């Protein structure tokens, strides 16, 4: 059934990448996105390891490289803004500057992937699945906007708080692990006059955050957060309420954080979420599968969410092609191909904190502490390169 109708929920990274591959394999693709258009915002995300290979096979690697944030380095500053550390070899957001990895703004990458997927994809913006019912032959989807349509397959690429997962697999609380940190992301003017640079400040009472320049130094992308031992209760759709939470938590923060918070109130691209992971025993149920953060979120701490979504899209579409559209065989193969890579990358998020602490101890000259912290940590480069995409 190569002309099978597939509904993809979510048009960020995994959704458009899957749309690209499914169209090329002869499927009929509809993408539904809750936002009224392609969503702006997001920090720099990283395309690494096999995701570079997938981008190359899509013919978009050069475009992604051209859109790279082009960071030259980073500084850490104290509460008065005095530099306490600088590096022109690595950055906190993107890692080793000499590596082949590409760091790119999330919205720029999403736009490149959507353009690549082309005009054959049907997009339904400002809508969302409200009910999903499947039988042996297909899946009936009732949309929040009132339409009812039937598809052969449905793929949820709708992120950490996936509606598809909730409707088909069960409540989010069954699958989510909070990692104890909340992060807000938004844009501000580059009032610090930085040139392809990032600056971070850590508050004494938990997390601070930082800024990095974007769009030829005309913008700052701000990310500020805080730690919370217990998960917060808040409305995921109430943006003003999320801004209030962040402003309250960071009210005593130093450096330019008060000024960054002033810009937050009018920012059109504010995004706030917990650092969390999704762990599921199975990424599919009948004719419905999950992709990217919806099925196996690693959290921004892994630095691998974007690569996992792009690689996942390639494998899922490839296995559907290889199985001639037999979703049972394809979904099983998708999972057995990818499970080890996903697990290793989710573990990276848990060890990355220790990795950063080890690096800071080494920079402070405490080699003993650095060695103790680094002991037993999986090598980052080995993990990100631990998957080789097949040819489909
Ligand atoms: C606005 C935004 C900012 C982000 N900022 C960062 C960041 O700074 N750093 C970082 O590491 N990661 C960030 N992420 C997450 C990062 O994009 C993902 O971890 C990764 O790229 C995997 O992408 P994904 O496509 O699986 O999920 P996501 O990128 O989360 O995309 C999910 C998409 O599904 C849409 N959606 C959600 N619910 C529904 C629904 N019910 N119906 C239809 N569509 C729905 C969302 O609007 C979104 O476009 C951000 C995501 C978004 C959406």
TrEMBL record:
Residues in FAD-binding domain copies: 4-337
Pfam families for this protein: FAD_binding_3
InterPro entries in the record: FAD-bd, FAD/NAD-bd_sf, FAD_aromatic-hydroxylase
Protein name listed in UniProt: FAD-binding protein
Organism: Actinomadura miaoliensis
Lineage, uppermost ranks: Bacteria, Bacillati, Actinomycetota, Actinomycetes, Streptosporangiales
């Amino acid at each position: 059934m190569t002309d099978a109708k597939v509904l993809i929920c979510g048009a960020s990274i995994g959704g458009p990448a899957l749309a690209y591959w499914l169209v090329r394999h002869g499927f009929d693709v509809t993408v539904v996105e809750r936002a009224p258009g392609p969503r702006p915002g997001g920090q720099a995300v990283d395309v690494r390891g096999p995701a570079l290979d997938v981008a190359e096979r899509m013919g978009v690697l050069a475009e992604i490289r051209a859109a790279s944030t082009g960071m030259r380095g980073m500084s850490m500053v104290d509460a008065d803004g005095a530099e306490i550390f600088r590096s022109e070899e690595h950055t906190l957001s993107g890692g080793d500057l000499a590596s082949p990895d590409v760091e790119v703004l999330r919205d720029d990458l999403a736009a490149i992937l959507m353009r690549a997927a082309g005009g054959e994809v049907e997009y339904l913006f400002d809508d969302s699945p409200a009910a999903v019912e499947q039988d042996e032959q297909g899946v009936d989807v009732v949309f929040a906007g009132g339409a009812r349509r039937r598809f052969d397959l449905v793929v949820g690429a709708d992120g950490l708080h996936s509606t598809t997962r909730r409707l088909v697999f069960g409540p989010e609380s069954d699958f989510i692990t909070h990692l104890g940190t909340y992060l807000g992301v938004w844009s501000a003017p580059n009032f610090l006059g930085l040139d392809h640079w990032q600056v971070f400040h850590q508050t004494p009472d938990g997390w601070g955050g930082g800024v990095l320049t974007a769009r030829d130094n005309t913008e700052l992308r701000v990310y500020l957060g805080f730690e919370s031992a217990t998960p917060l209760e808040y409305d995921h759709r109430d943006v003003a309420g999320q801004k209030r939470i962040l402003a309250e938590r960071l009210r005593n923060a130093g450096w330019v954080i008060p000024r960054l918070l002033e810009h937050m109130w009018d920012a059109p691209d504010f995004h706030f979420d917990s650092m969390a992971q999704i762990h599921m025993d199975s990424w599919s149920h009948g004719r419905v599968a999950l992709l990217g953060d919806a099925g196996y979120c690693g959290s921004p701490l892994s630095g691998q969410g974007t690569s996992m979504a792009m690689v996942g899209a390639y494998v899922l579409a490839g296995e559907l092609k290889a199985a001639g559209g037999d979703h049972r065989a394809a979904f099983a193969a998708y999972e057995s191909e990818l499970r080890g890579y996903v697990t290793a990358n989710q573990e990276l998020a848990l060890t990355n904190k220790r990795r950063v602490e080890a690096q800071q101890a080494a920079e402070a000259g405490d080699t003993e502490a650095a060695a103790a912290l680094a002991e037993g940590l999986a090598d980052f480069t080995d993990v990100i390169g631990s998957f080789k995409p097949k040819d489909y």
